[in-house]
Amino acid sequence: MSSTAIVTQSRVLSLTSLPEASIQNPLSGWNIPQDHPIAKTLFKEQPIMNAESLEGRLLFAIPKKGGIVPFISLMYVNKSHPGRLYEKCLALLAGADIQFRRHHRLDVCLSLNHNLALIFLPASDIPSFVAKGDIDLGITGHDVILEAKVQGLVDEVLRLGFGKCSLQIQVPESGPIKTIDDLAGKRVVTSFEVLAGQYFDEVDERLGLKGDNKTKIEYVGGSVEAACALGLADGIVDLVESGDTMRAAGLHAIGTLLDTEAVLIRAATPKRPELTQLTDLITKRVAGVIAAEKYVVVQYNISRDKLVSATRITPGRRAPTVSPLEEENWVAVSSMVEKKNSATVMDQLVAIGAEDVLVFNLDNCRV
Ligand SMILES: Nc1ncnc2c1ncn2[C@@H]1O[C@H](COP(=O)(O)OP(=O)(O)OP(=O)(O)O)[C@@H](O)[C@H]1O
Ligand SMILES: O=P(O)(O)OC[C@H]1O[C@H](OP(=O)(O)OP(=O)(O)O)[C@H](O)[C@@H]1O
After folding, report:
1. Which amino acids bring their CB within 6 angstroms of ligand 1?
2. Residue of 62, 84, 223 to mutate, ligand 1, most atoms within 8 A of C-beta
3. For residue 306, is it within any domain?
4. CA quadruple 76, 79, 82, 83: dihedral sign
5. Cβ neighbours, 10 Å, residue 124
6. In this protein, which residues make up the domain named ATP phosphoribosyltransferase catalytic (predicted)?
């Protein structure tokens, strides 16, 4: 599919001709009447969008869920989130200073400050668009890349540290099936038929199960966890994050196919090499936001004779910055350390005689 075809399918309209009477506030997600002064400002700032205005722009795919913030009461009756990856992606775009105004009815919008357009798509559709080069850059789950069988066609350039979960084999806790081998040859329901199919092909092969005796994999688009209770499956293969859904459905995990998280992907062979420079720039910006979330800067004073021990504790990404202090034989050291280790690092520094140990959060960085 060419990028023009994507545009056509995504209801790209000139904003001046939109029939809707409201516009979504990109910060709160709530709709504002079109004649409200804030909405007027948003409309004025939004470039007019049509197929021509996408010409030559880098296309950046973002998982689309979450256009509308649901009422709180609805969140209790519906387990679906307004968009697990979507909300995090918005924070990432803001950190990378990719400005845009998204109309709540549109899945394509132009960046206000870069030669790029954001394309909001289901997470599971993003791998194949990027693999074909129709979209230059995308964010999606590592799991859906494997499910789409596009490894080799897309480069996973950056792990993003969110959207972490595992694809697990689950069976009723109180039932007779206790192991993978018990489940082999029976009925498995999943939204990941490729990965589940590959996995059980190997199990079947190992157990010598052939023809009608092989494990039967059946696809469903959602609510996978209901399949056992409905009598449709003996086991399921589904994503597990907190485990709440699995437990609520009376299931437990007997195996893990893979651990996954959100990743930034690019086409292994870009269709439009002229956009590589901008793709690199956006990649570096996103990497900077991720690193800023992952690292803190620790700064401390230490006597020069203890510097070797201190730099073993805080080696930095390349090397620590060491500056002489006015006091003889004392230096100030600053170094990036992983946020999750910062308390331990502070304890270790104090234990070897460091003083005035300070930790700073990073707003942003280039690494
Ligand atoms: N608890 C979770 N359940 C499902 N997916 C999760 C979870 N936590 C993280 N993810 C990641 O989010 C991806 C799904 O993204 P998103 O929530 O945008 O859904 P989607 O593609 O619209 O699909 P669906 O409608 O099936 O939820 C998964 O492929 C996985 O990588
Ligand atoms: O371990 P947990 O934190 O409970 O999350 C896992 C659940 O979330 C996903 O479903 P989703 O909310 O996308 O709904 P769906 O059944 O419609 O796919 C997934 O398919 C599990 O059912």
Report:
1. 63, 65, 83-86, 122-124, 141, 143-144, 163, 165, 222, 239, 241, 260
2. 84
3. yes
4. positive
5. 18
6. 123-282
Q: Give me 206's structure tokens.
A: 């190992």
Q: Where are the alpha helices (DSSP H) in 314-361?
A: 342-351
* pLDDT tens, position by position, 240-280: 999 999 999 999 999 999 999 999 999 999 999 999 999 99
Which domain does 235 fall in, by range? Answer: 165-260
Cα 337 to Cα 319: distance, rounded to the nearest angstrom: 11
Query: Does 288 map to a domain?
Result: no
Give this prediction's pTM: 0.82
Q: Which of 237, 260, 283 is the last residue of a domain?
A: 260
ipTM: 0.95
Torsion over CA: 54, 64, 113, 160 (sign)? negative
Three-class SS state of 109: strand
Q: Answer yes or no: is the C-beta of 243 below 6 A from any ligand 2 atom.
A: yes
> How many domains in the chain?
3
For residue 209, being part of any structural domain is answered with yes
Q: How far apart are CA 309 and CA 305, in angstroms?
A: 9
240 CB less than 6 Å from ligand 2? yes
CB 144 within 8 Å of CB 156:
no
Angle, CA 51 vertex, CA 48 and CA 55 arms, to 5°: 100
Contact at 8 Å (CB) between 98 and 115? no
